[in-house]
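can u do me a favor
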């Protein structure tokens, strides 16, 4: 993530605090991979895909608000924040048990997950075979099962 985007994310979270949230966070996720969907032993979807987006969570007055967007431009992030704050405020009016969060203070964290084997290095044929095996195992579990759908993401 670049410094410009990081600055935008921080300013969006700070805006949430100005709008009445006691806590605000913006998380960005960048994902790419293969999607395999098998229904009753037949491949229905096989797609290379990528997803990038932000999740915004706010807290205030004992209530949470959440919104997300796949557009990382500042205006879209601010709109998602306004949605989250609106949900928080609407929920706050109906929250009987009020509580406070321990304020952690602002922080920025970059997290990259590592695995023993990179999923991108696993051949697509192996992924398809795995989903078909899962589909078949579920189908054969009980004769009363009429239909099975298995997905690899």
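np, heres the sequence
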């Amino acid at each position: 993530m670049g410094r410009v985007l990081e600055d935008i994310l921080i300013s969006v979270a700070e805006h949430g605090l100005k709008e009445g949230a006691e806590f605000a966070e913006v998380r960005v996720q960048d994902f790419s991979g293969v999607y395999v969907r098998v229904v009753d032993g037949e491949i229905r979807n096989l797609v290379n895909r990528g997803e990038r987006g932000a999740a915004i969570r706010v807290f205030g007055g004992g209530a949470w608000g959440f919104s997300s967007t796949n557009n990382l431009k500042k205006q879209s992030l601010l709109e998602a924040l306004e949605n989250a704050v609106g949900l928080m405020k609407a929920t706050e009016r109906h929250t009987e048990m009020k509580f406070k969060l321990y304020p952690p203070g602002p922080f920025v964290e970059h997290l990259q997950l590592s695995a023993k084997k990179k999923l991108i290095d696993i051949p697509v044929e192996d992924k398809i075979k795995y989903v078909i095996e899962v589909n078949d195992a579920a189908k054969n579990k009980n004769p009363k099962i009429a239909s099975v759908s298995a997905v690899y993401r």
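The radius of gyration is 21 Å. hope that helps!!
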